[in-house]
């Protein structure tokens, strides 16, 4: 009989905001978000506790061309608000799929989402609810990758799973360099020293310091999330 015991009991899933666009040029594609939710549901059904951080690149980034000339901190707050919109969209898609989900925000928007309270988030996870951490770290000049590392460490996740548009970490950006090759595994030190652009150095460094491994994989590859959670070789593992 096949062993269906997941390798990880608690994970932090970082979802690329841009992945929510599907084939669109901007925003949230309802069918795509529904498909992503089904991938998450398959893992939740295994009893895995799931914290989620969603990026905002499908709506706004503080460093995007659209923010040129803006005060950087102001633009970054707009980016954080974009992640709140994505989080609300994801919560609603989860509701449709019958998943019990809570959103907690690092910025106070009390009429819309509850504030981030670590103990409460952990309690929700223990109760089998998915918790979406919105508004990144709540601070400008950071990214949602760093928020994923931070929340992952705070909730005691065993791994950060970075679900993105590419199927792992390459020697160079595979969207720009057709000759780039993929790593099965790479150490934090090597990922940082090579300056690999798939994730920012702050996120890599925080995970390294907290001995929190990262697995980068494609959210568009059916079953990939579940394979990572089962401990199978999928995407790229970043290890200490
Ligand atoms: N060495 C590399 N290996 C893999 N991907 C890379 C590399 N360098 C740059 N990239 C790019 O990094 C992107 C992954 O980052 P992702 O889109 O998840 O970014 P993000 O800023 O976290 O997203 P968002 O803002 O949309 O949430 C890939 O789409 C890929 O093109
Ligand atoms: O802690 C954070 C997280 C995010 N931001 C801003 O939001 C956008 C979108 O996040 P991505 O990680 O790029 O998807 C980001 O460009 C920042 O402008 C932030 O300021 N602090």
In short:
With 240 residues, the protein is an alpha/beta fold.
How would you describe this protein?
- The chain has 240 residues and is an alpha/beta fold.
- Helices cover 34% and strands 18% of the residues.
- Strand 1 (10-15), helix 1 and strand 2 form a beta-alpha-beta unit.
- The model has no long low-confidence stretch (mean pLDDT 97).
- Strands 4-3-5-2-1-6-8-9-7 form a 9-stranded mixed beta sheet, sandwiched between helices.
- It has a single domain (10-239), classed as Acetylglutamate kinase-like (Carbamate kinase).
- The protein binds adenosine-5'-triphosphate and ligand LLZGTKA7.
- Adenosine-5'-triphosphate (ATP) is lined by residues 16-18, 55-58, 144-145, 164-166, 169-170, 172-175, 196-198.
- The site of adenosine-5'-triphosphate has 21 residues, from helix 4.
- Its main location: cytoplasm.
Write the layout of secondary structure elements.
Blueprint: E1 10-15, H1 30-44, E2 49-54, H2 72-96, E3 101-105, E4 114-115, H3 118-126, E5 130-134, H4 144-154, E6 159-164, E7 185-187, H5 188-193, H6 201-209, E8 214-218, H7 224-229, E9 236-239
Parallel strand pairs: 1-2, 1-6, 2-5, 3-4, 3-5, 6-8, 7-9
Antiparallel strand pairs: 8-9
Bound molecules: adenosine-5'-triphosphate and the ligand O=c1ccn([C@@H]2O[C@H](COP(=O)(O)O)[C@@H](O)[C@H]2O)c(=O)[nH]1.
Adenosine-5'-triphosphate (ATP) binds next to helix 4.
Organism: Azospira restricta
Enzyme class: transferase
InterPro entries: AceGlu_kinase-like_sf, Asp/Glu/Uridylate_kinase, Uridylate_kinase, Uridylate_kinase_bac
